[in-house]
Amino acid sequence: MIRIFTFVSALLCCTIALSQRTNLDRENFKTSYVNLPSKPILDSTKRTYSINTGSITIPGFKKLKSGGSLDINYKFHGTKIGTVDIKKEKHEKKDKEGKVLSTSYTYIVKTTYSSSATLSVNNGTNAESYEKSYSESEDYASGEFTTYKKAQDYYNNNRHSLRDKYRNDHKNQFLNSARRHLINTYGYDIETHEREFFWILKSKKHPEYAKHQEAYEKLKTVFSTMQHNQPVDSIKTELQSVIEYFNGVIPRYEGDKRKIRKIRYASYYNIGKIYYYLDMPEKVKEYAQKLIDNDYDKSDGRYLNEIADDLIKDFEANKTKTRHFDVKTEDLSNQTDENEATELTDIEVNKAYLITKENDTLLVDIKTSDMNKIAYSLKTVEYDKEGKPFGTRVRKAKKCSQLVFVDGDHYRNIKFKESSIKGGAVDVDQMVLGGATDKLCKVLFESEKINLYLFNNKELVIMPAGAEKGKSTMSAGYVFGFKKNLTKLAEGCPSVQEKVASKTYKNNQEDLLSFCKDLTNCSAD
Fold this sequence. Notes:
This protein has 13 helices and 19 strands. It is an alpha+beta fold.
């Protein structure tokens, strides 16, 4: 009779358990350990580095002024602005029948901001040297303006602050990427957080609810004592009863029903996580396979298997079986002011190919701060044998034929008289070509018929192909004789001359680009 009662009671409990909700909650817990590097320097006496910036620290290493086992050079190459376009958008207001009642236009400034940086590493412990490149490019679009002039003025008034915003964003992004690479590869980063979790029952009517809550409270309390520099032996002992409880849940819930598999899933997952933070990857793999075989959420099983394999790999590379030990980080570089050091070494440069008048081609770096002087003289950065900047070399524009930046911007030496030159301000040399002098101007358009350039980001210069000098469209002759000048340039192309006569083209970058394209594409009429 007793046996029958026991059997009925067990059957009844099982039936009740099957009928209960098995909702699980993520319950967080604290962990603290040392992230192991992928390419460690095993001899701790050789864990030294020297770097040209104060913005990067490698945990577990000594920073030296020079001569570190890792000799690191970080260089930010600056932020380049792409071609600035002011796009015209047409807006039509129509009635119910589709008849156009009114037409209006808005103008949007569009351009691209591109930045790049490099990280060079020379590892003296194994003679390994390599370079990593970082680049970022973002499109910019302003708000809408009712006139071309308003859009143009907005950009001209804000172009420096816009560039600075993208430059700072990209610079921080590159520094973070470089820092993370160095730490992941060589450093011993201390990780302390409460982002990890166990799966704990939240269904109060479930038979395992109370025990699940009790187990979690113990897990949370014991793991809160974990320190990155203390062994986990005592934690392992204290958590043995929790592991036994979760293991004991599994045989009590047999079967293929989803709710049953979900209870087993929580046990397998929680035990796997416990073993992972106790530095026992082989046991993690064992429970990862049980998760996969349980077939409630195979992806978590594959995830535990993956992190266990990574931990085994890290243990083998670092010749250790633990992630809990002292980490000593020192700065012996005598770097008194990080901001000053960063200002001196993290110069913002732009790589370009310079073609001289003698037809020599040179790869040069140009500081972004010197870009606004590029029209008249070219300052290129000079480096010492260690690759650190120590000065500049100045070349006059008249000795430079072309300058082609690696991001695509192209400058050409052309002769013209800038509109700001007043009568009496032209010297004897300038008088040879009526005040026209050599200047490096940005190429906006070039063809076999017509060329258009931009001087100092504000003055457009138009130049027929083969001409000896160009004309500024800000000069009095162009401002007051705009139609006359364009009509003359369009000789032999009546269709373009008709557009000039109907005032299709205005004296701005957008319309002059259209004029140059129309003239170039014009066939003999």
